[in-house]
Fold each of these.
Amino acid sequence: MFSERKKSKRETKKDYSKEQNKIAKGTIFKGDITSEGAFRIEGILEGNLKTNSKIVLSETGKIIGDLECEEADIEGLIKGKVIVKNNLSLKSTAHIEGEITTSQLAVEPGANLNGNCTMKGAVKTLQNEQKRKSKSKRETKTA
């Protein structure tokens, strides 16, 4: 009797990662957003956005705040910290002012990036190489 209720509640959990959210052109949203679903931003977001899905920032879109997502296609303006777990694509009209951390970056000619960019894979490789060099120096000194 009770186990049937628990089972039916589990089955009704919806996967929101495939849902599409939109901030339309002419809309100004002030505040932080946390979501499971993807976003298309054509208006202005004054706040932070965190999602486990994809972000599309149109040419008219602006984010004044931090962005954390799985994937992103940027055509508009971002002023803040950008963390993209997989592919970050900066289109020719993109303008980013801030710090970027991603594992893959594609930049079209004309895109503007004012700030720092850290590539996840490259950082790990560099740190491992530095450890190997320091280890080999220690081995040479002891020999």
Amino acid sequence: MPTALSLQDEFTACALLAPLDGQRLEGTPMATAEFDPLGAVVDWLDACRARRLDQLLKLYEAGATLECACDGPRSYRGRRAIASYWIDRLDAAVDESFQLINIVPGEDPDCVVLDYLSYEGKPVRMHFTFAASGKIAATVCAPTVGSRAA
């Protein structure tokens, strides 16, 4: 029986690839004609920028998980819990929030790593794991040190 991954295990399982050279994107293991995981993460970022909780939640599996180390270790399971996490953050978002810093495929074929500015305008790294359906199965986030938007 598989055990639940801790925040550190999830970050290790979804480690970054070497820097992108343009050819890596073509080799993104989960990308298919029907599903582009990098595009799904951009859709996630767009929903956050638009402050559209309904659009954001549609991107998640019904039983998805969100682990956040930004405000202390917290875990949320299911769309309702994820909605409770995001509703106040979207309402409180500052003008520079949800700016893309970097996005790369992870080592794991169903993972994407996003560096962006949080709702507070602070640098955050979010790891996305996708289900076979193409919806987000899990997100794990933590603050980053020294990353800034260009």
Amino acid sequence: MLKILKTALSRHVADRDGLVKELEGSSSALSLVVTTVFRMPRKRADLPVDYWKMQAKHARGRADLMRDPDAKATMLEIVQKYEAMADCAARREIIRHRPD
């Protein structure tokens, strides 16, 4: 896992897309987080609700495939974090579209 993280950090600027492709087949929680972070738009601070819901859906699918209880629990925690991010994005959209 640490090797994946070091690779991710060292290639952050140089070959972001190549790293995502390399990690996409991995089932580890760390690789999911790294690929998610690297798939985020580089200059957009406010990601839409649908983005976070899709990330939660993918993470839940990976959790369903895991046999190790600790890994599965970790992945389900990640799902909860993605769902929390979707809630934050929804609140942000409501505020942004609220009439003055």
